[in-house]
Amino acid sequence: MASQYDVIVLGSGPGGYVAAIRASQLGLKTAVVERESLGGICLNWGCIPTKALLKSAQVFEYIKHSENYGITINGEAKPDFEGVIKRSRGVADSMSKGVTFLMRKNKIDVLAGNGKVKPGKKIEVTDKDGKATEYEAKHIIIATGGRARALPAVPIDGEKVIEYRKAMTLPNQPASMLVIGSGAIGVEFAYVYASMGTKVTIVEFLPRIVPVEDEEISKELAKQYKKLGVDIYTSSEVTKVDTGGKGCKVFVKTPDGEKTFDVDVVLSAAGVVANIENIGLEETGIKTERGKITTDDFYRTNVEGYYAIGDCTKGQALAHVASAEAIICVEKIAGLDHVEPLNYNNIPGCTYCTPEIASVGYTETAAKEAGYDILVGKFPLSASGKAKAAGAPEGFVKVIFDKKYGEWLGAHMIGYNVTELVAEVVTARRLETTGHEILKAVHPHPTISESIKDATEAAYGEAIHL
């Protein structure tokens, strides 16, 4: 007879392991299925190790510009690329071990192998030796995540045309790199490599880089990247990559005609696709749409007892979204009162390049298109004492309020440490805080966070420091 659980989670990323822990906390007998390392892409190949790479790049930038801080360094500073990669992998490994500890602490069974859902609330797990074992659960949560999208014209070979996983483990630093796509993954890796001396070119299909951000954010990042020496081609498309020679010859269709680039390596960062193949969806009858599993507001699929969360569903492909969905899904399964659907218009987005980007809610254009009469305030970090002292005066904080009721519609920031600021906006919007209340909330000085209040003052025509 198959082993029985209350909940089995397929996948142990930030959606899967959070779902498993919350289920266990609520008294449900729980298991999690994982074919690789606990923590999924986020801890092992995404969020965490990329931040380690970015920190190494930032430290190198500090060293190169140490004289700006009154510090003289004798001798040449250069990146130890192998050491940078090693440190990143070490950070990832330690975080994965932390999830292993959490599984033990919460008495969650870890079923190692490839999982496949089956009819009748069953899941089959095939281990590395090919042995298949069947398990049963009252509830099965699919949290299989996503992977790099491969463009038809640019097949990934893992050597000269790579995706983000390979970009974190290259044996040698390339002299030149072309990055396809300028979302978070593209611009973060562009900063890492460019700051360490690689000649980087970004090719973006849409009219501006980081295209999901407010238009002013895109303009500011482009300006700062050009100072870094990054070449940017927007409204452009890679039509072909010839890998027959020593490096890559890349053919790019631009508004000014076709251009060719000779680079050592091409990084394909054109988004992610869901991992939904070969996991039993068709056999079980679970519906999909446009490459994603279809769910309701509480992540129930069309088949009773089966749920889906994270990157394999329609929400934003972000780790914190997967975790939030996990908790909502499990609390609904457990029958808790007052479980609310997730407000996807109050999800923060963060990009950890330098300068950092953080945003939540409506962009200025989207707010106008939604019919709001708006107040917009901007505070340049060049006027921030903390930013100037840190040697990072680039960027700004921008806030958007509804003129009639003071509702906080959105905030968009680019600059030093702004990813640590956006949670204030998320919380304030959750509590339906108005701009007038932000004006009366005392912010500490000197901090980057007070720029939110300064921007709000600007929106209401009460700017003190401008």
Keywords:
466 residues, five-stranded parallel β-sheet, single chain, seven-stranded mixed β-sheet, 14 helices, alpha/beta, globular
Description:
With 466 residues, this protein is α/β, with parallel strands linked by helices. 31% of the residues lie in helices and 26% in strands. It contains 14 helices and 24 strands. The chain has helices at 16-25, 40-45, 47-64, 81-105, 164-167, 184-195, 215-228, 281-284, 319-333, 364-369, 385-389, 422-430, 435-440, 450-459; strands spanning 3-10, 30-34, 109-112, 114-118, 122-126, 132-142, 146-148, 161-162, 176-180, 199-203, 231-233, 237-242, 248-254, 257-263, 265-268, 272-274, 288-289, 292-293, 306-308, 349-351, 356-361, 374-380, 395-402, 408-415. α1 (16-25) packs parallel to α9 (319-333). The longest helix has 25 residues, at 81-105. It is globular, with a radius of gyration of 24 Å.
What coarse outline follows from CA principal-axis ratios? globular
For the largest beta-sheet, the strand count, sense and barrel status come to: 7 strands, mixed
Strand content: 25-35%
Radius of gyration: 24 Å
Topology, number of strands: 24
Distance between the termini: 72 Å
What would a concise description of this structure say?
With 466 residues, the chain is of the alpha/beta class. Helices cover 31% and strands 26% of the residues.
Write the layout of secondary structure elements.
Layout: E1 3-10, H1 16-25, E2 30-34, H2 40-45, H3 47-64, H4 81-105, E3 109-112, E4 114-118, E5 122-126, E6 132-142, E7 146-148, E8 161-162, H5 164-167, E9 176-180, H6 184-195, E10 199-203, H7 215-228, E11 231-233, E12 237-242, E13 248-254, E14 257-263, E15 265-268, E16 272-274, H8 281-284, E17 288-289, E18 292-293, E19 306-308, H9 319-333, E20 349-351, E21 356-361, H10 364-369, E22 374-380, H11 385-389, E23 395-402, E24 408-415, H12 422-430, H13 435-440, H14 450-459
Parallel strand pairs: 1-2, 1-6, 2-3, 6-19, 8-15, 9-10, 9-15, 10-11
Antiparallel strand pairs: 4-5, 5-6, 7-16, 12-13, 13-14, 17-18, 20-21, 21-24, 22-23, 23-24
Helix pairs in contact: 1-9, 3-4, 3-6
